[in-house]
Specification:
42% of the residues lie in helices and 17% in strands. The protein is of the alpha/beta class. The chain folds into two domains: 181 residues, Rossmann fold; 116 residues, 3-Layer(aba) Sandwich (Rossmann fold), CATH 3.40.50. The strands form two sheets. It has a seven-stranded mixed sheet with strand order 3-2-1-4-5-10-11, sandwiched between helices. Strands 7-8-6-9 form a four-stranded parallel sheet, sandwiched between helices. It binds adenosine-5'-diphosphate. The site of adenosine-5'-diphosphate has 17 residues, from helix 4.
């Protein structure tokens, strides 16, 4: 049964991810479809505190489904960590009669929503948007597929020059706490080794393996490192490999922010559209303080609090497959 909700607001918060615009479009247009007034909050929680809130209509989200970034902009807000900030945020919502809030962001933004909804009576629904895919309870998060594909495209290009010169390349991809981009892009580009924060890195094992490959003249080798790998990231791995393999031509490349931008993939646009639609349905059906995720291609609704507590786990079989295929 649909609930009495008349005005909703949405924001993008924390780290940006390609596909956020597609989610904004879906939330706005679904809200309007159900006869709701829809407000866009600029720059996440900070814009909410500063009352930077605009009324959205169907045209405000025209021609954005294919664009990276977020038209609502995003931010990290220190003020929202304080009760005083959250009080002001609540007052800004109340004075407009907003009775539902959609937060598109990662686990940090969800943590903010949990605190906010406990202190003030404002129903919140999250949409999992992060390139890191590190929110347990959802097989996909908005932005991951695009970021992983951007990494694959870049690594493919590097591989051409790597092959031409018989080089070893250490390529660092994004992922401060999570190794999914590294795992997926590394497997998809035929990496010898993939180093991720979830697994302790045994550098000696990599050195031994590269020496063995050197002996049998397999000189082109690719190592994909997540930026948050416990050994210290791409530069550190490259430095130690250079020390231990003086004959090898070793180069390091840090892919960096290109992984955050660009047109979202078909996958990210479709999951963003579905999640956006279901987030509004959730508010209307009284499923509050949950985030919308996708498991086995079905929508599911996970309490925001659980998203905060759980962390995704890496399937170790993937690493084993990578090792076998890299011979
Ligand atoms: P992401 O959503 O990408 O994980 P952050 O971790 O930076 O990004 O979180 C985004 C914002 O959420 C923070 O800048 C802060 O304003 C808010 N936030 C995070 N944790 C809390 C918390 N425990 N209480 C209140 N607000 C929080």
């Amino acid at each position: 049964m649909k609930q009495k909700v008349s005005r909703i607001a949405l924001m993008t918060s924390g780290g940006d991810a390609p596909g956020m615009n597609a989610a904004i479009r879906a939330v706005v247009r679904t809200g309007l479809y159900y006869g709701l007034e829809v407000y866009g909050i600029m720059r996440g929680y900070q814009g909410l505190i500063e009352d930077d809130i605009i009324k959205m209509n169907s045209r405000s989200v025209a021609n954005i489904i294919q664009r990276g970034g977020t038209i609502l902009k995003t931010a990290r807000s220190k003020d929202f960590l304080q009760l005083e900030g959250r009080q002001t945020a609540y007052e800004n919502l109340k004075k407009r009669g907003i009775d539902g809030l959609v937060i598109i962001g990662g686990d940090g933004s969800f943590r903010g929503a949990v605190t906010f909804s406990k202190e003030f009576n404002i129903p919140c629904v999250g949409i999992a948007g992060t390139i890191d895919k590190d929110i347990a309870g959802s097989d996909y998060t908005i932005g991951f597929d695009t970021a992983a594909n951007t990494a694959v495209e870049a690594i493919d290009k590097i591989r051409d020059t790597m092959e031409a010169h018989d080089r070893v390349f250490v390529i660092e991809v994004m992922g401060r706490d999570a190794g999914y981009i590294a795992l997926h892009s590394g497997m998809a580009t035929g990496a010898e080794s993939i180093l991720i924060p979830e697994q302790k890195t045994d550098i000696n094992d990599i050195i031994t393996s590269l020496k063995e490959k050197e002996r049998r003249k397999k000189l082109v080798n690719l190592i994909v490192v997540a930026e948050g790998d416990d050994f210290g990231g791409g530069n550190e791995v490259g430095r130690v490999l250079k020390e231990n393999l003086p004959k090898a031509e070793i180069r390091v490349c840090i892919l960096g922010h290109i992984q955050r931008g660009g047109a979202p993939s078909c996958m990210d646009r479709t999951i963003a559209s579905r999640m956006g639609y279901h987030a509004v349905e959730s508010l209307l059906e009284g499923r509050h303080n949950v985030f919308v995720g996708i498991t086995n291609n079905e929508m599911n609704y996970i309490p925001l609090e659980q998203a905060v507590k759980m962390k995704g786990t890496i399937n170790e079989e993937w690493l084993n497959i990578v090792k076998i295929l890299a011979k």
